[in-house]
Amino acid sequence: MAAPDAFLLASVFGILGNIVAFMVYLAPLPTFYRIFKKKSTEGFLSIPYSVALFSAMLMLYYAFLKTNAFMLITINSIGCIIETSYLVMYMIYAPPKTRIYTAKLLVLFNVGVYGVIILSTYLIPNHFLRIKVVGWISVVFSVCVFAAPLSIMRLVIRTRSVEFMSFPLSFCLTLCAVMWFFYGLLVRDLFIAAPNILGFAFGLAQMIMYLMFKNSKKSMLPEFSLNQIPNVVAVNDIVASDSQLKTEDTKKSSEAEENQSTESMTNDSRAEDAAAAEPNESIV
């Protein structure tokens, strides 16, 4: 393929990737509209937005090091702005303890870890080696992010319900991975193309799983609804809560059985006393 054709195709895939990624960044808007409307975070977690911000910051740093990566700079700059806006709104309406926890998370993770990465890689004298190191760090982090939906997939298999899975979001994430894979392939950037192979695989698996279980009987876990699940991390809380509820139900049933057995033993002893008393009465 001629160089101009490859550049043109890379630009097309880069623009499409920017559009789809922008839609993915806007996916939590209903959640934050609800937070704004109710003036409360209602137990929503800030970790996914902190992770998304860190990912955008890391890719932005990589793009600046690489140079001539306008497509990466554009979408990740937008991502940083959007995720920061989400976190600011979260901090405004979060309870004091949650606000403090979120502030600590941002300072330690988004400032501390990110700062360590920048400082440690800045000390590398060779520019191309610095790009490779930051690229591999980005790959490792991207793989961790793409592997996050495994929790939702496990929950879908466990409950036989797709209540916790959004098909449009899974589709957008898969499409986004495809666009950035071909962009990375055309610009010959392994650090962009490689992690999106895994992103495509997980996205495709989610969509297949959705089609498999979409007609299954819905089995929502107690006291939770889809609107209360903004991210993957919340699913773990739901599973834990479900286990706790089952444990409580087991304890209650055990207590009921013990009470029933105690009552039956009491009735049996009363019957035995009555039977023992009958011969004495006849003798008298």
Automatic annotation (TrEMBL):
Region (Disordered): 244-284
Spans through the membrane: 6-26, 47-64, 70-93, 105-124, 136-157, 164-186, 192-213
Protein's UniProt keywords contain Secreted: no
InterPro entries, sorted: SWEET (IPR047664), SWEET_rpt (IPR004316)
Basic and acidic residues composition bias: residue spans: 245-255
GO cellular component, one term: plasma membrane
Chief place of localization: membrane
Topology in membrane: Multi-pass membrane protein
Listed Polar residues bias regions: 259-268
Record keywords: Cell membrane, Membrane, Repeat, Sugar transport, Transmembrane, Transmembrane helix, Transport
Coiled-coil intervals: none
Cellular location(s): Cell membrane
GO molecular function: sucrose transmembrane transporter activity; sugar transmembrane transporter activity
Superkingdom of origin organism: Eukaryota
Similarity field: Belongs to the SWEET sugar transporter family.
UniProt function note: Mediates both low-affinity uptake and efflux of sugar across the membrane.
Protein name: Bidirectional sugar transporter SWEET
Organism lineage string: Eukaryota, Viridiplantae, Streptophyta, Embryophyta, Tracheophyta
